[in-house]
Design brief:
The chain has about 325 residues and is an all-alpha fold. The protein contains 16 helices and no strands. α5 packs antiparallel against α6 and α8 packs parallel to α10.
Length: about 325
Amino acid sequence: MSHATSGKRGLLHLENIDRFAGPFGRRAADGDVPPADSPRPAAVSSSTRAKSSSSLRLALIIVAGLLATAFLLIKAGIIKTEGARAAILSRVAAASPDQARAYTFLGKHLGTSGRTREAVGACTKLVELRPDDPYAHVLLGDVYSDENRPLEAITCYKNATDLDPNCFDAHFGVGKAYAALGRNQEAIDSYERALRIKPDSAAAHMSLGLALSGAGRYEEAMQAFKDAKQLDPAVNEVQVLSGNAYMEAGLYKQAIQCYKDVVTTDQNHARAYYNLGKAYLEIGDRGLALEQQHILQSLDPKLADRLLRLIND
């Protein structure tokens, strides 16, 4: 078929465009004049245009106001975005009960939003859908840990290591669960297995240090904290833990240096100021301990009162 069209056919084509375009009609080019018998749109009065414009402005103002209000509520913590995500994902999972991916995200977001019991249910469903996936068992173990149910968590993590002996998250999870039970040696063994798989994990080194400190192996604990700090210098908690280990070992000057490093980089770290005050008391410097107590009054009045009681004892 030829693509050439007569002038009349082309004109009819343009007329059709105008008809289907409706109120958003094509703007005619110079000399593009429709036939005399073509229908003309009814004239729109200026008052009608003004009303439409006012209605549009009002709608935009209302939408902008709602968005601004929602933003302020989210920023203030009144609306929890994680909770909102979890509600949406719950609907997705309900609509797709056989979709493991939906339950994976649902379990994570329920756990993050503090709804751990519901998270256990979602992750249990995930394990039923993917019994051979070690990370499904790890996720269930994580929510059991959040529920303070370490024995159930250990079972889940061990199921994961049976499926994949090189699953770092599973060995690390077992260590955390044993540490929660106060079984430090078993925690140490698990963390060491995890570090053989992923030696650059600052979190694993830090957790190993805590378990070693709990077992009274302070020198090894301090080395683990140093390793963690080298891997992640920005983590102030490593320095706090190092200070705690030095305190338990009676090395108060070294503990003081650790806490001072923390408050130098984070001037709102109340626990570091409290521990620093305790360390100064141990070396007999009551004046410097009082300085930390004064700083704490504006950061954490309860810790400030606790430190003052220690100073006055």
